[in-house]
């Protein structure tokens, strides 16, 4: 969600329980605009909130000229003071893969990756003196996973130039209501995987300037997205059932779209058995 349109965007996703108090909204919008100035970002977005036991993490993203390039992520505990998060790496994701349960809400909290719970709830240590993992590292890994799995944009909102960089499409005027109700009208805004496996015949009808991302229609498990029309059909809302708390909105025939995550940072691993 862009900082400039944050109050309006939060009203559109309020039906998903992604609201903030008026005090938090005011503090958040003012601090995000200051972030853009201080860090010299071209655009700042409010990514969402991960709820911890002791308190929440508020997450923001800073974007550069290449919209598909690396993003700077920051977190705050009070919507005023922000701390820059390190870039996500494969090592971070591997280290935190076995961590389960709620976030504590304390970035300095340390997890013991060798600690496991047996059937009698006893602590077993595979090796003593192992490296501890700070919750800040787990936060980086979870944000990256959520973004790659369910961070989406409408088809045509971005264009890929012949030289490689991705920019916002100035000619994008929104999806029609008919198109907005289809999963194949939305793309994962991350490095494509399924697109690379398609044959030349399957790519024949694709526009390389806008169809350079993976569509939601091929997501696994099938049925992991919920599409609903709200406000008398003037608003399309997509909700992820895999990462509960991710809400995407789009106002058809306008440039208004965005997504927000408000949840505990836990993946719904039981989804295949619920469908």
Keywords:
eight-stranded mixed beta sheet; alpha+beta; 275 residues
Give the overall pLDDT as a whole number: 84
The string of secondary-structure elements, in order, is HHEEEEHEEEEHEEEHEEEEEH
As for the number of domains, it is: 1
Distance between the termini: 30 Å
**Strand sequence of the main sheet, in spatial order?**
4-3-2-1-16-15-14-13
Low-confidence stretches: 117-128
How many extended strands? 16
Q: What is the SS-derived class?
A: alpha+beta
Organism: Gopherus agassizii (Agassiz's desert tortoise)
InterPro entries: Radial_spoke, RSP9
Family: Belongs to the flagellar radial spoke RSP9 family.
Protein name: Radial spoke head protein 9 homolog
Question: Any overview of this molecule?
Answer:
- A hairpin with a 5-residue loop joins β14 and β15.
- 20% of the residues lie in helices and 26% in strands.
- Strands 4-3-2-1-16-15-14-13 form an 8-stranded mixed β-sheet. A two-stranded antiparallel ribbon has the order 5-8. A two-stranded antiparallel ribbon has the order 6-7.
- It is built from 6 helices and 16 strands.
- It is of the alpha+beta class and 275 residues long.
- The chain is globular.
- It has one domain.
- It is found in: Cell projection, Kinocilium; Cytoplasm, Cytoskeleton, Flagellum axoneme.
- Keywords: Cell projection, Cilium, Cilium biogenesis/degradation, Cytoplasm, Cytoskeleton, Flagellum.
- One of its GO terms (biological process) is axoneme assembly.
- This is Radial spoke head protein 9 homolog.
- InterPro entries: Radial_spoke, RSP9.
